[in-house]
Structure formats: C-alpha cells, structure tokens
Amino acid sequence: MTKHTRSLIIIPTYNEAENLEPLVSAILALDAGFEILVVDDNSPDGTGEIADRLAAELPQVHVLHRPGKMGLGTAYVQGFEWALHKDYQCIFQMDCDFSHHPRYLPIHLEKIATAHAVIGSRYVPGGGTVNWGWLRQLVSASGNFFARTMLGLHVQDCTGGFRCYQREVIQRIPWDKVRLEGYGFLIGTIYQVQRLGFTITEFPIIFEDRRTGQSKMSFRIMVEAFFYVMRTAMARLHLPSRDDRVVNGGEISL
Amino acid sequence: MFSMARQSALGDYAPATTPWLTLMFSSSQANVYSVKSDRLPVAVGSGGTP
To answer: Do B31 and A174 touch (CB under 8 A)?
Structure first.
C-alpha cells in the first residue's frame, strides 16, 4: 500500500476537544495520504464544532455528526459504512486521545499490503503500555486472556482498537453479529475477521495513557463484553470456525 | 445534498438485520455529514481500552 492508496482513519469522539486538533495535525504531518473521518456523538465540549472547522479548512478531514452518545461500536460501523460508500481501500480505526500514536500509522500501511487486517498490539514482543497502574494492567491482561481462550483467538491483543482493515474485510463482516457498544465490539470484530479466514498481522506498539480528557470506560461495557464472549463461546461449541489463519510479523503462524 | 441507503454500502447486511443503526446520512456543508436518526440508543459507557 502506498501514499496513493485511499486510506481513511475513523476517529470516534466524545468530549475530545483538547485532543482532536493536535491529533489531526499529527496525522496530516505524516504526509502519507491519510484522510480522516471524525465521528462525533454530539459532544457537549464542542468537539463537533472543532471538527467542522477542521473539515472546512482541510479537505482531508470529514465529519460525521450523530445526535447523541450512541457508543463506540455503532460509531465505527457507521464510519465503515461511510468509508465503503466513498470507496476507500484501507480503513483504519484509532482513538482520539493519543494512546494510539500516529507515528505507527505508516507501519500499519506497510503491513496491510500483506494481510487483510493489522493490529497495533500491546501484547507482542516489543509492545507494551506506559502510565498504567497494576490494576489496569491486570484487568487488561486477564480480559485479553479470557477472550482469546474462550473464543480461540490467535491474536495477542484482541481488545486494542488501533487497527487497519482492507475494505473487503469490512464488507464481509456480519455486523449484525457484533452489536456491541464498548470494547466488546473490538473483540467481536476480530473474532469475525478470524472466523472468515482473513489474515491478521500484529506489530508492537507502546500504548500511552490518554494525554487529556476522560476515559469512557464503565462497568457496564465490561459486563457487555463478558457476556458477549460467553455467549459466543457457547455458540462456538456448535459452530467451530474454519480456515483460521493469522500472520504475525509477516509470517503465517497458523 | 448527499444521502445513501445502508444497503448500498454493506451489501447483505441490510436494515432488516441491523435495525440498531440508522440508514441515511445527509450533508450540510462540504465534508460534514449528519446521521439521520429518529431513534437514539443511548450508550452509558462507550469506549475505553482495557
């Protein structure tokens, strides 16, 4: 994939007024041909207005306004829908808070040339987190282990949201089976990618805790993810996946 | 004005299977779109990375 490949980065926002403009500037400074779709859930802090201004000034920036806080999952699906309609070939997802640093985007672009999906991973050698307390590390590691084990996932980081997909992947995922609001959506999406037999590459990233603003994590979405994994694991007992293949570091490992 | 039907983008995954999503976008200015919605599913928590 090159600078000339049509690539869209979908960034869901809710109260990210302090982060949005610096992030957009950092992405465009890469001069790698990226375009950006901000999906804003009517943020009370004026994020939507900032996005509108950026879209007016920069032709690479697009904005999709939603009437209220509708959740991460639907934000991505509607962003995907928009991306497909606009004929983008590579579709990225990333957080707005700089926990997914733009410096990794060119690596994504390089890796997506040899895989259907690419994950910026905290849990492959060389990856990790900074500024996380032991409790958050424990919750993250155990949640990943639980989801990977129960669903038979081959990827190491199934709850991370720094990803890139080829358009074909987005077209083929049965989105009605991934009706989740929170990070369970990320687990569900990668489960469907693997189940459809697409290749997945992970490369290491250092996940930095958000610079400013508040996390949207809640107990409710943890419960949602838990029950999604349990329900899907039970269904899997009757419908095992086929043709599961994962590419790690450019080499097919399974 | 720009608008689209969901089915054109997501193929088989038409409104009947994803009634939780709205189907139409509209554009009020260049590069700015709005999701048309007559229902608003509210998410209490919606993100965060564990």
So the answer is: no
